[in-house]
Design a protein that fits this description.
Elements lengths: L8 H4 L13 H13 L11 H12 L5 H13 L9 H6 E3 L3 H17 L7 H12 L4 E2 L1 H5 L4 H11 L5
Antiparallel strand pairs: 1-2
């Protein structure tokens, strides 16, 4: 990140996910190094077109989501926002800025894609829980007190998911 500036929260919010990708294990890294340094790279071949991608988007958007599932995503995002009416004391203690509307939208939209990838034609609560971390990771701004207490956004998301109950 040397020579770059962190994006403001308003710009970070436009990214759907913040996915954490760790380093490869040594054997896999050695394999990549050997493959990429011994021969010319294979030519890149198009697998699908831009029109295909638009059709994929259309299919994902057509996956149904029950109101209870959408409401669960909205409640998770809303619970991350500090305010005097928030019953979650840990949010009021540790959060400077919580997740906005896009968080709910992206949990549901990501949940739709995840459902399809898991062979289902509908979104369930597990889809929303699984997407909460990559969706919230860059949308919640924790304060200095949280940092001093060793609280990360992931730990905060754990607490949010424990606190916000599903309704059926």
């Amino acid at each position: 990140m040397e020579g770059t500036y962190p994006l403001p929260e308003a710009q970070l919010d436009r990214f759907m996910f913040n996915v954490w990708i760790d380093y490869l294990p040594e054997d896999q890294e050695v394999a990549v190094v050997r493959q990429t340094t011994t021969t010319d790279p294979e030519p890149i071949e198009q697998i699908f077109s831009g029109e295909d991608i638009l059709r994929f988007h259309d299919v994902v958007r057509k996956v149904p989501v029950a109101e209870d599932i959408a409401r669960y995503a909205v409640r998770i995002a809303a619970a991350s926002r500090p305010n005097k009416d928030n019953p979650l004391d840990f949010v009021n203690e540790w959060v400077t800025w919580g997740a906005g509307l896009r968080a709910s939208q992206y949990m549901v939209l990501g949940g739709k894609a995840r459902a399809l990838l898991h062979g289902r034609s509908h979104v369930n609560f597990e889809d929303i829980r699984a997407l909460a971390y990559p969706v919230l990771r860059h949308r919640i701004l924790i304060n200095y007190r949280a940092e001093a207490e060793g609280i990360t956004v992931e730990k905060l998301a754990d607490r949010l998911l424990e606190s916000v109950k599903e309704t059926v």
